[in-house]
Design a protein that fits this description.
The chain is an alpha+beta fold and 175 residues long. It has five helices and four strands, in the order H-H-H-E-E-H-E-E-H. A four-stranded antiparallel β-sheet has the order 2-1-4-3. Helix 3 crosses helix 4.
Amino acid sequence: MLVTQEEAAQGLARTALGIVTTLNDQRMYESPEIRAVYARVRQLAHLVGERLSLGAVDAVAAAELYVTDRRFRGHVPDHRPPVLSPAQSSTLRAIAHGEVTISRGRPWLSRDGLRVSISTVRALEGGGLVTRTPCPRPLQDERLVLTSAGRSGLAATFARPRPTALTTAAPPSAR
């Protein structure tokens, strides 16, 4: 059901962006009414894109609570977590939250504090964990989404310690 709602929301966002494109391509008198229509359609596309991101965060949180409770009750998932670097693990979770898109061939994040490289994205794609879809948001080309294997792999990591980021700093020298 969530997938159907997400597809409908994406369709609505694509339609709204199509209207914006059509308005941009038309030569018309820019009356206050036309500007208001243009602003509302852009706002609709933006709100639908934001709603998709918020829904993804809630869905991941609910799934994590469910899997954590199942583990606590002794039901261990059959699926083993994928072997991922800390950067890949953080990126996979950010993609599940709907926070990573591709713009002009480069990753774009909707939150600060996380860096994602295109090589990390390609590694996750190569592992069959994520795929690209057309993005309904303005200014982004593609949206990254988890594949079935990516969803299973992420769920298998729930209620397990998260890998810590590796440091490249040299240990302090003893004098």
